[in-house]
Hints:
The complex is a heterodimer of chains A (174) and B (428). A seven-stranded mixed beta sheet of chain A has the order 4-3-2-1-5-6-7. Chain A is an alpha/beta fold. Chain A has seven helices and seven strands; from the N terminus they run E-H-H-E-H-E-H-E-H-E-E-E-H-H. Chain A is globular, with a radius of gyration of 15 Å. Chain B has 428 residues and is α/β, with parallel strands linked by helices. In chain B, the strands form five sheets. A five-stranded parallel beta sheet of chain B has the order 5-4-3-6-7. Chain B has a five-stranded parallel beta sheet with strand order 17-16-15-18-19. In chain B, strand 13 and strand 14 form a beta hairpin. Chain B is globular. At the A-B interface, helix 4, helix 6 and helix 7 of A face strand 1, helix 2, helix 3 and helix 5 of B.
Amino acid sequence: MKNFNGQVLFLDRADINTDEIIPARYLTEITKEALKPNLLEDLKFEGFDPEKDISGKNVVITRSNFGCGSSREHAPWAFEVNGINLVIAESYARIFRQNMFNCGMMAVELPAEVIDRLFAEFSDKQTTIKTDFENSRFIVKADGKESEILFSISGFDRALVEAGGWVDFADKNY
Amino acid sequence: MGKTVAEKIFDAHSVDNPHDDIHVIKLDAVFCHEITTPVAVNDLVSRGKDRVFDPDKIKAVIDHVTPAKDSKTALQGKIIRDWAKRNEIKDFFDIGRNGVCHALFPEKGFVRPGYTIIMGDSHTCTHGAFGAFAAGVGTTDLEVGILKGVCAFHYPKTIKIKITGTLPQGVYAKDMILSIIGQLGVNGATNKVIEFAGPVVEQMRMEARMTLCNMAIEAGGTCGICYPDMNTVDYLWPFISDEFESKPAALTAFKEFCPDLDAEYDDVITIAAGGLSPQVTYGYKPDTVKPVSEMAGTPVDQVYIGSCTNGRIEDLRVAVEVLKGEKISDAVRGIVSPATPAIFNKALEEGIIKIFMDAGFCVTNPTCGACLGMSNGVIAEGEVCASTTNRNFFGRMGKGGMVHLMSPATAAATAIAGYITNSKLYKA
Lengths: 174, 428
């Protein structure tokens, strides 16, 4: 299984699209590694600077309809090669969400009020998340403060994460 | 309980139900292009599984950047070209025969009512215009589709949108779908199929239905679906005349993929077409939609007519109705990309290309390039493009650029004026 622990990058905007995650001009790359420097390059909003804010982060917490737009799996790959295998959001666009689990990564949905609380309590601090996959819970930590958040993912999504992605799952089963 | 179109198709294709409402369905077609396929091909090669489930069910094209613009895009073309050759994929469309996938593949007769189709491209929802379940997927789903001929989906939920009345003169399928996205919002149909029904859709030719279904994804929809009828049969007849003894016989067979009268929907929305005016986007999301009249006077630097949304012959015909005898503004660069070689040829025969050129448009070969800022019409930082495409994300057609989505009629009128304006075809 991939690593789902580490420092959190908070992205406080809804409807962040795949062109903002990785612009189409980089879709000419044929390796995942080549996407590394360009993650979130076109995402512009106050309080976010891709050049400073991404380094060292392993988890993204964001708002609703994350990953809308294109089908490009380059979006999850750009996260993966930057060490980010876990996104936590209020909701996702279908293809992005499926692409994440297909890669053995996680796109976890939490209710709006829980996301609101995470932003309110943690977004201005150095925050880390530890994922207890077996018991479906996140331990969120900052400045000695700790919060336990339960999550739920479907049996299918869980199986994809355990299998390391859809290719391995499908190859074994179909 | 009755079934929706997507439910009927799923029930006819389901091969496994591994968890909850997840169904693994067998695929009737897997479409491929040179941007999202090469990584799948390389992965299959590295796994020692360089094979395809059925070479006749895989259709491939180079369309996003063609002719190749640099070494990287040349390599992407080479990877898909070599892969198609060694796997004996006979329906591979290389330069000279290539066009925008969602215009080319229907035109080649690769879509049928009741089909299941995936492609590593979000606008695959276009093919639902034929009464098929067609969904955009990522490269991993595509890879499994290529290898195994299956894909996993949640059992589909459906929103039915019934469009009543008649579209006013000078108002088109593009205006209708922009207005619908404006009402639904960019995630109003997420994880759902949209059935487009009602008299307005029944009157639409297949080209207009494809425009409608093409943008279902901009409301988050998995697929847009129109019901197969005689228009569908007429369009497909050159490809199916051997299979059916008559058009009515084909229609009877295809009607199987119309919904049951007692089908259950997540939501049913009725929209009256009569009051609709030409629409345009004003922001960086496709649901930021206003009547053109409210954006009139907004200057643009470039006008682009083309794409899987509006690069078909009907679209070009409408544009030249506006452009005939006119010159585009000195302040504007006009670019038109007929979506396929057949459309290009037809446009030549009908004198459409000459009208575009006389008006001052640059005519490019069929390609997706400009729509996503990859080639053939990228705009500069701070520039504005009036475009018949489907996405207006910040920087979509070029870093730091702005896109206003509109119909071909509005785009042509905007090119003449140099600023956003209604076309003369629309009488307010």
